[in-house]
Amino acid sequence: PILDLTEQIDIAQVIASTTLSSSGNIGADIFSDDSVEAEILVNQGRNNIIEGPNEVPQPSLELAERKEEGYIETPGVMKIMKFAIPAVGVWLCGPMLSLIDTSTVGLLSGTAQQAALGPAVAVADYSALLLAFMYTATTNLISAAQETDRGIEGKPRTTRTLISSLQLSGYVGSAIGASLIILARVALRAIIGNDTIDPEVFTAAMKYLRIRALGMPAAAFIGAAQSACLGMKDIKSPLYVLLTAAVVNFFGDMAFVSSSHPWIGGAAGAAWATIFSQYAAVFIFTKWLQNKPKSASVAATSSPDESDEQRPETVNISNAILELTGPAASPGAMRRHNFREKLKSLKMSRKSRQEHTTNIFTNGRPSLSDMVRKMKRSKSTDARKEGKGSSDDTFSARGFLEGKMRFRDVFSLPSKEAAMEFWPYVLPVTATSVGRVSGYVAMSHVVSSSIGTIAMAAQQIVLSFFYCLCPLADSLNLTAQSFVPTLYAKKKSMQRTKALHRITTEFWRAGLLMGSACVGAIALLPFLSRFFTGDVLVMSEVNTVVPFLSIFFAVHGVFSATEGILLGQRDLGFLGKSYAAFFFAVPWFMLQVKKTALTGVGSAKLTSVWKVFTCYQLFRTVSWLVRIMRLNIKSKLEITKNADETNIVSGDSI
Question: Can you tell me the distance from the alpha carbon of 458 to that of 466, in angstroms, rounded to the nearest whole number?
């Protein structure tokens, strides 16, 4: 039956409660639940659909490819960004705290104290990279446990993995923190590499580093908890913790940094503020995981049975759509008039029904692409109401451990079996982290040992921005490792090769978006540098580095995404050999800058080390892109060769 449009019926609900039937004349069998396919057809053949019932739209090349046997779906840019942006929170906490420290120390304690932060923060942050295996392992193990626990009440494996990760992180962090306290002097001398450095700078750096080492257990706990949330697709909890830690750190800096006491003021005060914020975040995160909101608890106890709710009746409206969108001479003129009047009335109530009035007319006719998009959205809403699915975006880890873990359990040792699950990640991830930071260590060493105090202070400001922007693109690396392995694990075929090529292209697009955002932020550095120092010479030195930072970040998104794709395809041999070469090559080139400065052959500036680092970034980006292309070509050739051999064997058999 044709729907009565005189009733107060929302157009999206009308579309959502119907199903396009293959018996209609508009070729409805080519539509699927994927609104993308429908939009491709509508946008390319809308006139064919609505001009008359005898004209059937021809599927596009893109749609024909989708209908190929064995077609493998791949995520688009929006889905990639949806996963990548929350992942930034895992890596952003540490750099954000260092950025706040740099700003307050530079404004309240002077250039010497700010210069001390350069080598001290470098040692602290590079030491924290030894915890990276905990984060990578936690995300992967929690994701696997979630799949194992699907449909099981209480999610026992996920719970056990999460508790073990929190327990183990505390002990790993304590071990690294103790080692850092003992080796602080050695580590600073190694990275500074100059015994003639200002004693005030070295003493302040020692105090900062040893105080920061006390916060390593908290840093490990926060990172593990945030990684677990991402494994459970909780995009909000890590951001809440980051905001809380940043606020506590800011007020701590304002309270301590301006003090004249040698162990409380200056760089030492910034370190105290940082560790207080970290332990505050640990306490809040633990309570967050242990306590559900009251509304959720009440909802859980009521257990409403929604299975008895009557579902909307499914109606075939293929002929109705043809009649409502037909030419003026066709039957149904009154219904078309009423339909358009109804759409106009919906458009008038813009505030309450804004989504139903966007682009609803196309040359006097309702847009079928809008209808299909609304149908998709409404079906998803109905599915959530019926309890058949839930949005990943709305999941929260809050209260996940309620009744399963007490606060004192955090200090217990995990079982040997649970701890051994993390062991396979220790050596590979740690080796990769060490290879990546060799360039940063060499750069800090050259700046501290041969360029001077002004350059050290400027370098600290630059690095604070650098470390805050890097996670924006680095999150694509983690996202690629989440999507690509599922495709790579499929049986070798031309469809798999095409899917890997498509997902690579989408990640490159996402990388360009992230890179553009980073370049835009770097453009603000000359303006923002005044909030980090009152020294005009330091601000001038910072501004000279901006062009090199812009080039670096322009390609960093594509680089990070490509590296994640290579990891997802298990191309560990290539990456391992590359970083082994970089481990020696990059420091060698950096040390040439130091040699030039110390011998007096030429002048060494802050821009000198950033030139080397930018060339390093461009070289590895090109190397990664060439590697991906070679793997894609190799895969196609192998499949083609196997197909030809199969055809020859079949012909011989005949």
Answer: 12
Neighbouring-strand partners of residue 366: 361
CA triplet 596, 597, 600: central angle to 5 degrees?
80
CA-CA-CA-CA torsion sign (313, 316, 320, 321): positive
Q: How far apart are CA 370 and CA 42, in angstroms?
A: 10
Closest-CA residue to 101 (of 83, 87, 114, 84): 114
Is pLDDT above 50 for 556?
yes
Say what percent of the chain tops pLDDT 70. 68
Tally Cβ neighbours within 10 Å of residue 261.
Answer: 10
Whole-angstrom distance, CA of residue 101 vs CA of residue 267: 8
Q: DSSP states of 534-545 as a string?
A: --HHHHHHHHTT
Per-residue pLDDT tens over the stretch 490-518: 777 888 888 888 889 999 999 999 999 99
pLDDT digits (tens, 9 = 90+) for 118-173: 788 888 888 888 888 888 778 778 877 776 777 787 788 888 888 999 999 999 99
Other CB atoms within 10 Å distance of the CB of residue 602: 11
- Which token pair is 516? 């553009």
Q: Round to whole Å and give the CA distance between 236 and 513.
A: 22
| Residue matched to tokens 């009308």 | 14
DSSP labels, 416-477: HHHHHTTHHHHHHHHHHHHHHHHHHHHHHHHHHHHT-HHHHHHHHHHHHHHHHHHHHHHHHH
Amino acid in the structure at residue 1 = P
Q: 56: phi > 0 → left, psi -120 to 50 → alpha, else beta; which?
A: beta
Answer with the residue of higher pLDDT: 27 or 367.
367
Q: How far is CA 134 from CA 164, 184, 436, 445, 566, in A?
A: 11, 23, 17, 28, 21
Hey, is 304 helix, strand or coil? coil
Predicted TM-score (pTM) of this structure = 0.60
461 in Cβ contact with 538 (< 8 Å): yes
> Burial of 255 by CB count in 10 Å (0-12 exposed, 13-18 middle, 19+ buried)?
middle
- The C-alpha angle with vertex 340 and arms to 335 and 341, in degrees rounded to 5, equals 95
CA distance 208 to 536: 25
Give the CA angle between residues 478, 480, 486 to the nearest 5°. 120
Residue with tokens 């990275």: 191
Helix (H) / strand (E) containing 185: helix 156-192
- Percentage helix, strand, coil for the chain under 3-state DSSP, each rounded to 5: 75, 0, 25
- Three-state SS at 225: helix
- Residue 191 neighbours by CB under 8 Å, 6+ apart: 119, 122, 123, 441, 444, 445, 448
| CA–CA distance, 536 with 264 (Å, rounded to integer) | 27
SS (H, E, C) 386-409: CCCCCCHHHCCCCCCCCCCCCHHH
As to burial, measured by CB atoms within 10 angstroms (0-12 exposed, 13-18 middle, 19+ buried), residue 573 is exposed
Calculate the dihedral angle through the C-alpha atoms of 200, 202, 207, 212, rounding to the nearest 10 degrees. Answer: 140
Q: Which residues contact 556 (CB under 8 A, 6 or more apart)?
A: 470, 473, 511, 514, 515, 518, 617
